[in-house]
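HUMAN: Quick job: go over this next protein and say how the chain folds.
***
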Amino acid sequence: MCRSIKTLRRHDEPATDEELRAAALQFVRKVSGYRVPSRANEAVFEAAVDEIAASSKKLLVSLKTGARA
């Protein structure tokens, strides 16, 4: 599922908010089956994208690496 979503965990530079939102949008499109939601579903669709992007950012910030500080 969502094979086109690229890995955003990188050692050289953190993922941008735009990259996180694009990945979240792809995920919500795949799960919902909508490329563009109807007006009736637009608000919940966008809320889901926002929530997934925020959760993804929290995940990436919280991950521990094997590197020693």
Observations:
- Residues 17-56 form one domain.
